[in-house]
Structures are given as structure tokens and as C-alpha cells.
Amino acid sequence: MKENKVTHDKVERIDIDIGPVDGVTDRPNPKDEEDARFSIQHIQAGILLEGDLNFTTFTEEKIHSPLFKEMRSRVIVHIHEDWPAKMMSGTAKVTLTTKDGRSFSKEMEQPLGGSALPLNTQEFKDTYYKLTKEILSADQIEWTCKTLLHLEEIDDLQELMEILTYGPAAGRKI
Which residue spans of the chain are classified as CATH 3.30.1330.120? Predict the structure, then answer.
């Protein structure tokens, strides 16, 4: 969408080809926030409408939003039962078709962050900061991120687990 300057209102449909195990994400009408997190249709709607995903993508308000419902209905999932019965089997393909007939596709064997395409340090930091900025203090984000990047050097994980479990209430003394 970004590369080709396509906005959500120009999208006719999105076709997604996935394997049989990944088919559990074919949830066109998620019933609650937890269900929405595993709905490939809701995830794609969030990307179409917001350009990215974060915790606010999966609220009750957005699950029931007429615009999100409309965008989810444009996502067509094709489950390939002949692909191996394992997570991320085959080559997943996403094809976006615009209302004027243009078509754009991307194929990947694994998502970014998978074992074949691990995040580099900066990508990890960017993702971590994005997902924790509403939960942890700036000092806690900095310390926990650094700690996670050097996890193999840590003898005692209690403080890290307290912060990640209880957030700002853990009161890390920095």
C-alpha cells in the first residue's frame, strides 16, 4: 500500500493464500478482542485502515466498527489443504486488488521476525518501543529492552519478570 500509494478506499479485495494449520486465522467476524488478535481479516483491516498494528487495533470498538467490518469483508482467505500440515507451511501470498483493476502481490515463506528472517537489533528495538510505550515508563522500556537483548548474560530474571508482569507498578529503581 505504501509503495504504490494505495489507500483503503481504493482496495477492492485482498486475497491471502495460507496453509492448513494457519487456516485457524480465518476468522472473518471476530467475537471479541482475543479472537480479533488471531483474525487474519481483522489484522488486514487494521493495516488497511491504520497503516500498522498496535494494541488499539484490537479493541471492542474496532471489532464492531462498520468500517472495520467492511474492510474485513474484503479479505478473502484461500486455505491450501494440500500444503504441509504445519505452521507457516508453503509460501504465503497476499494479493491486493484495487477498484481500478491494479494488482499487487507479495510472497513470503515466513513473516519478518521468524527464524528465517530474524529481526536485527534496531528492528527489535523499534518494535519493542512501539508495543511497550503505552505500558511501561521510558526508563523501564530502556532497561527491559537492553536486558532482553542481553538475556543470556542475566543470572536473575526476577526484576525483569516483575516489570514485564506488573509494568510501572513494579517501580524499577533506576
Answer: 8-108
H/E element, 31? none
Residue with cell 487474519: 40
Q: Does domain 8-108 have CATH number 3.30.1330.120?
A: yes
Residue type, 161: M
pTM of whole model > 0.90? no
Q: What length is written for the chain?
A: 174
Other beta carbons within 10 Å of 172: 15
Q: What is the pLDDT along the chain (174 residues), one digit of tens a residue?
A: 888 899 999 999 999 999 999 999 999 999 999 999 999 999 999 999 999 888 899 999 999 999 999 999 999 999 999 998 887 777 889 999 999 999 999 998 878 888 888 999 999 999 999 989 888 999 999 999 999 999 999 999 998 998 888 766 665 444
Helices 121-132 + 138-149 axis angle, to 10 = 140
| H or E stretch covering 72 | helix 66-73
